[in-house]
Design brief:
Blueprint lengths: L1 H17 L2 E2 H4 E3 L5 E10 L12 H13 L26 E9 L8 E8 L10 E8 L5 E8 L5 E4 L4 E4 L4 E10 L13 E5 L4 H18 L5 E3 L4 E4 L7 H9 L2 E2 L6 E5 L4 E4 L4 E7 L3 E8 L2 E3 L10 E3 L2 E8 L4 E5 L2 H11 L3 H13 L3 E2 L1 E4 L1
Parallel strand pairs: 15-24
Antiparallel strand pairs: 1-14, 2-11, 3-4, 3-6, 4-5, 5-10, 6-7, 7-10, 8-9, 11-13, 12-13, 15-16, 17-22, 17-23, 18-21, 19-20
Helix pairs in contact: 1-6
Length: 376
């Protein structure tokens, strides 16, 4: 298991060391991003799996407001001055209050459609078979950017009776494919940008320098000019030539390939026993041994009975057996000139993931692990 784990780490790291990636896969265009929108609505048509209106008063209030806006009177007529009109008590279980969320893509035009996610707010047990009533979706500025409506698609289910319940997935959340119609366009476009700025997804000085050199090398032959300069280790500013459009320009720049640099880092997750070692991790020469101590405690109570005619009482006498076993451990010398030798040295010890984690943390404490250790 350990050999397979570290062999997989070695294969992935070795493959990443030889492969170059496109610039558009490791950098984004500043200003071209998604915007989150959210709305509150009602899902109707449920088969008795909606909210209990007595336990979810906001669902009842929303239902009454929707019916009144459609011209349906849901209030009792006032009989006297001392007896004003009161709302009619509703007893339906076919309605559920939901929150509708979506990500508004950049440069999307009014009239286009996008997917939305619907999640229950009350005590509804399932949204299966429901239909979302027209719901306005707003952004952080309070403006309405889309309107959602349609049949909810639910992947999970929940069925059961009084003694047993069977469920799979999450039946109280679903999606509506192409369920939102865009009503407003997000301000800003590529043509309005004086400079185009690339933002690295994983900021690094070496990676930024390699991207800068690759772009200027390409631009020197294509445009006869140096068009890129670095602002910091995260952003690179591009000066677009006048005789080319921004879309074609970014398409050409995005297809350029570079080899991103990764920091020397070891990521440890003690809960799952996962260890990920970066390609550039180095270990100074150290001698490591790790012993496995197993302690077993067994309780074997003994029943003690009194002798005949002794007028004694039967008692339970505790009896504890403790066994300690420490397996023999070997001393291994680790010298991580490269990742392959480091993995080979760790495999020689033959430990479980918990042992590997303990050794790496101890080597870091000793100052021999030349990398950052991140414990999740």
């Amino acid at each position: 298991m350990i050999r397979l784990l570290f062999a997989l780490v070695l294969i992935v790291s070795a493959a990443g060391a030889q492969a170059a990636v496109r610039i558009k896969d490791i950098a984004d265009i500043k200003g071209l991003r998604e915007n989150q929108i959210v709305g509150y609505g009602l899902v109707i048509g449920l088969n008795g799996t909606g909210d209990t209106l007595r336990n979810a008063p906001f669902t009842e209030q929303s239902l009454q407001s929707m019916l009144e806006n459609m011209g349906i009177n849901v209030r009792n007529e006032a009989t006297s001055t001392n007896n004003p009109a009161r709302p009619t008590t509703l007893r339906t279980r076919n309605v559920a209050a939901v929150m509708v969320t979506a990500d508004l893509p950049p440069s999307i035009a009014p009239g286009e459609r996008m997917d939305v996610t619907v999640s229950s707010l009350g005590d509804a047990t399932s949204l299966l078979g429901g239909t979302l009533v027209m719901t306005s979706l707003r952004a952080a500025d309070g403006a309405v950017y889309a309107v959602a409506q349609g049949a909810v698609t639910v992947a999970g289910y929940s069925v059961g009776g009084q003694a047993q319940n069977v469920s799979q997935g999450t039946p109280t959340a679903g999606r509506i494919p192409n369920g939102a119609l865009v009503e407003r366009e997000v301000q800003g476009s590529l043509h309005e940008m004086e400079f185009l700025v690339l933002e690295l997804k994983n900021p690094d000085f070496v990676t930024a320098t390699r991207i800068l050199d690759a772009i200027n090398r390409y631009a020197g032959g294509r445009y006869r000019a140096q068009i890129a300069f670095e602002r910091d280790f995260r952003t690179i500013v591009l000066s677009k030539p006048r005789y080319i459009g921004p879309v074609r320009f970014l398409a050409e720049i995005g297809e350029l390939t570079v080899e991103p640099d990764t920091p020397a880092r070891v990521v440890i997750n003690e809960r799952t026993g996962t260890v990920v070692i970066g390609r550039d991790v180095r270990i100074s020469t150290v001698a490591v041994t790790h012993g496995n101590l197993t302690v077993r405690v067994t309780e074997m109570p003994v029943v003690s009975q009194p002798a005949p005619f002794s007028k004694g009482q039967t008692v339970v006498v505790p009896q504890t057996i403790v066994e300690a076993n420490e397996a023999g451990a070997q001393v291994a010398i680790l010298s991580g000139v490269d990742l392959q030798r480091l993995v080979r040295g760790l495999n020689q010890i033959g430990l479980k993931p918990s042992g590997i984690i303990a050794i790496l943390q101890a080597i870091k404490t000793a100052g021999a692990l030349q990398a950052d250790v991140i414990v999740q």
